[in-house]
Structures are given as structure tokens and as C-alpha cells.
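Allow me, if you will, to draw on your knowledge of protein folds for a short while. The matter concerns a single protein, recorded as an amino acid sequence and a row of C-alpha cells. Could you please explain, in whatever detail you think fit, how the C-alpha cells follow from the sequence? I remain grateful for any guidance, and I place the record below:

…
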Amino acid sequence: AQIRYTIPEELTRGAFVGNIAKDLGTDVAKLAAANLQVLSDSDSQYFSVNVNTGVIMVSERIDREQLCGQNPRCFLHLKLAIENPVEFYRIEVEILDINDNPPEFPSAEVSLRIYELASLGARFPIQPAQDPDVGTNTLQTYHLSANENFNLNVKARTDGGKFPELVLERALDRELRAVHHLVLTAEDGGYPPRSSKMHITIQVLDANDNHPVFDRPSYGARLVENSPLGTLVVKLNATDVDEGPNGDIRYSLSSHNSAALRQIFAIDEQTGEIRVQGKLDFEEATVYEIEVEAKDMGSPTMEEHCSVVVEIIDVNDNAPEVIVTSFSSSLSEDAPLGTVVAVIHVRDKDSGEQGKVQCHVSPDLPFQLRKDFEHQYSLLTSTYLDRERIAFYNVTVSASDLGSPPLSHHTILPVALADVNDNPPQFEQASYEVLVAENNPVGSVLVTVSAVDPDSEQNSRLSYSILQVSGTDPGLDPTRYLSIHPTSGRVSAKLPFDYEQTTYLQFHVEVSDGGSPALRNRTLVHVFIADQNDNAPQVHFPRAGEDSAAQFRISPSIYPPALITKVVAMDADSGRNAWLSYHLVEATDPGLFSVALRSGEIRIVRALQENDASAHELLVVVRDGGEPPLSTAVTLVVLVEEKGPEALQGSEAQVIDSEGLPTITLYLIISLVLISTVSLVGLAALVMRYL
């Protein structure tokens, strides 16, 4: 939106300009809450806004002549910025001229020397008065005091300037009157009008009675800006019908020309050639009007004046300018589409198509430009941002004009993305499998779980905890056996494991980040307990006291390989640690009995003889397959007695049924084989996973 106000110059500080709240049709309280800001295109802050009333006031003295010079219209431009949401309003304040400056002559007195034979109608330029006001307030007319010889002519230039000239209306006669005193008054059109006076003293000279004459009253030329030094502008030609020194002409730039113009153009006094000696810049001036005078060498000299109008042609010699008026270098990665990142003002000093500017950013970036006003753009987000993919952008804003060839300017805006907690932690493995030997030391590290979070700082700070798997035996609470370091993820044993009580344990490890709210993830940990040989074999048959031996009776007529009895033992360990072997380590007659290595059956090896002892003591050792092996010993006493056929059954029911023993052994062997197979398969799977 654009609002225009009009005020006169030289208003006092605090003077009312306009009510922005009323003109925008909004409430004053809303303006105050929206963080209203005033942005000026000029270096000085001429206006301010009272956010409590919405009134725009003058904050500095405004001199229209200082701001805009002789431009007929003078404007100051403001931009009002409002946040939540971001809105811009353009305000244009037109500064009206007041008649605060009178016309001023360069000097209060001037002297002219005019030859008495000067032709009627001869013109004598007078240095004009200058009035910095514009419009009707500037210089409007000149008045010449009453006299008999001179009349006043006012010459109007193309730029609006007015140059007074004295015109000789009646021939001069030095003998009659040698000096004339005139008063020239310059008056502007203000109300009331202002004026100033110049006293002109004219001395009438004798002799040289012809002045130089140009072949045309004015000259015109066109030059391209930035023309090289020495470029010919125009060649003037003036003639004087006098002879000798009175007809010898010298050319020069009139004193009417400004000092700046004299630095740009130079004239050859002999040839009348005007050449470029300074820099021509279309952006500083589009037209130059050069006042040239031709003087003869008579005494007194006579002169003639002409104007040379030089039009400057613009070329594309100014690259666009990019001015960042508002910029946020940090942007949240979850910023919505269309978020304003920067406000940019562009300008080009060239004119026409060469001064029109186009802006763009790379289409590969998640940003776009929106044109707000003729020379203002806003940089917006065009797609959703992800700091974990790209955390920093160098946004290059390119501005190019429509010249041929076009000129361009590039400005880089660094935009860093601020992190939000939008990524849950991720474990390096979906599950972990751990093999732990029983009787492990307390505090030993079983496994280290590890998770990563692509977020940054607090959002990526992870903490670990142990949770029981839903539906598992409450008696196998993992926190009873295990603990986890909250930051490193190291899982340590709080108690030693006992394979004979627990062979397998599973639990969840949960990781949570430090965001708000926190994001979580879980992984499953399988703990396999490996058996150690920590249990010695236990003899279940025959049972004997600590200091006694089991007794068995056999008949003297027993024949080999008759079964005497069977030692039955069990081992609480598993696998190889429970694989038992039986050994006869001591015997009264070592060659009479034997023990089966795996079954523990004790048999007679040869027939009894009369000289054999009647009682035989056997020491049987049961040894497991662990490393190192553990063993248990049992002592048996075999008595040779004549009892008849029943002796083979043993006395007092101490000899076990020979048919039942092979069945028990078979069950034991099958159980050991199954346990060993399961353990080996589990161990092999674990090894293959780690490989």
C-alpha cells in the first residue's frame, strides 16, 4: 500500500504530517503491538511516528532547496514495517516550496564599458540573479530603472533560467554623457514578493565600433557519456568586419558558466573548438548549456555571446546496487513456507531500460524472491528445510539490469539453520546378542549399545535405560542382574550368572534424546549364559555314607561277564561338562572286576577261584568332561558267599535290577546329547553373527 502526504518546507520539529493509523484504517494499539518501524530512503531521519497515537511528525528541519535543488517536485519516501505478520507500507511525502529565499545577484555592483559606436540593438548580458526556490517562488522578472539609452531584455534558457540583457535602444554619445548609472531589480513571484538590486555603471568608450558575430545564435551537439578526453563537441565560428586587432577574435567560456561545467569542457581560444576535458556522466547531468563569448582584440574589446546545448546520451555504465534493509541470519529448520528471511532494496543509476533491475536467486536453493514494490524484494523460504541434510546456505541474490550488455551485482546472504528435535535416536543394531560365561565377575561389561541422533546439541544428547520385555517372567527382571551407564550405553553385571538357574535372558534398552519433548527408540538384547564346569558329579546309586562302603554279595559260582551292579551318577552342568566317565582306580584284585567307561556297569571279568579273597573292595571314580575335570569317588565292597541262585540278586535288596539300569542310562545319554546339541547350535549362531 502507498500513502501520500503534502507538507511545506521549514516546518518546526514536531509538526503534524499525517495520522498513519487513521489512513491505514487500523487501531493504534495494534500498531504499537506490531513493532512499527520507520525506514527512510535518505541518510537523515526527517520523520518519526508516535506509536501511541499513529501520528507522523517532523523530526528534523526540512530544506527543500537542500534536498531537491531546482527539481520542480520534491519527495521524501518512507517505508513502514509491521511484524506479525510482516507488512510494508510505502509513504510518499511531497515537500512544497515556500518563498524563503530572495533572488541574489553575484555582486551588488557591476561595471560595463560600452563603445560609443555600439549599434542599436546591441545586447549586453548581465550576470543573472539566483533564486534557489522553485515554481512561482523563484525568480520571475527583472526591472530596469528609467533611462534614455537602454532597455531590458530577459533571455529565457531551456532549463528555465532567465538572463537579463541590456539592449541599446538609443545611440550613445560619450561627449554628451560618458557614464550611465542604472539599477537592475530582480523580483520573484512569491507572496509577498522578494527582490534584490544591482547597481550598473556603464562607461562609454570610444573607437572599435563592430563586435564579433557568430554564424548562428546557438549550437547543439550530442555526446555519449564517458566520452574520452579530447572529444570534439562543436567548432564555433564568429566573424568581425573590423580590421587588425579590432577584428582578431578570441573565444572563451562565459563567466555565466559554473565552475563544474568549466572542469568538463574547454574551448580553444584561437579555433573556437570545444572539447571534452572532464568526465561526462549522464546520471549527474543530462544536458549542458555552455555560454560562449567571442571577443575582438580592439580597444576596448567588443564581444558576442552564443549558447551551445550539449545533450548527453546514456550508456549502461552503472551496475545495479543491492541494499539489504532487513536480514535474519539464523532460521529455524521448521520454519513454515513463505517465511521472510530478508528485505532487499535494489537501484540502478542508469535511465530507461538500462535502469530497470531484475533480481533472482538460484532455483536449486529452498528460497525465492517476492517483489513487494518497484525496487523492493523479500527473500522467502520456498520449500521445507532440513538442518540434518543441509545446515548452512550461502544465498546469492543476483541483480541485473536490462542494458546491452547487461550489468549485474551479486550479494551473498549467509543463512544458518537452527536445530529442532525432529529425529528420534537410532541404534546401530536392531538387536544385540551376547554370550556370557556363568560366574562372571560383578561389574564386568557385557555389551555396549550405541545409538546416534542426527540432531545437534541438547537434541542429540542421549540417555540409556533398561526395560523388561513385555510378557516375560517377572522373576527375570533384567534390572536385578544388569545395570546400564546412562550416557555410554555400557551394560554391566550386577550379579554373577548361574547357568544352572538361568540359561537365557532378554531385555529392552531404551534410548531417549534431550529434546523437548524427548524422542525415544528401543533395541532388544539377547544374553546367552554359557556353562562352566562348576559342579562335580553326584553319585545317586549305590548310596553309601561318608565313612562306609556299599556292600554287594555274589555267589562263588558266578560266571563272567555277569553284572555285579551299576554306579549311577549325575552332573548339574551341561554339555561336555556333564559327560561322565567311570574308572576303577583301586581293587583288591584288579584283574577280577571291570567298570564300563560310560555306563558305570561293574562286571566280573573271570571266574572265581578257591584262592581268591572272600571280600573285594573297589574304588570307582566318576569324572566329568570339563576342563579341568571334576570327579567323585565311591567305594564298593563285594562279598563272595554261597547263597544259592538268589545270591545273584544281592542280599538285603542292595543289588539293583539289571534290566532297569540300561533304561536309566539311555535316558541320561539322550538328555546329555540334546543339551549339548542346543548349546553348540546357539554358540555357532552367535559366532556367525559376530563374524
User: Anything to note?
Assistant: Residues 145 and 183 are 5 Å apart (CA to CA).
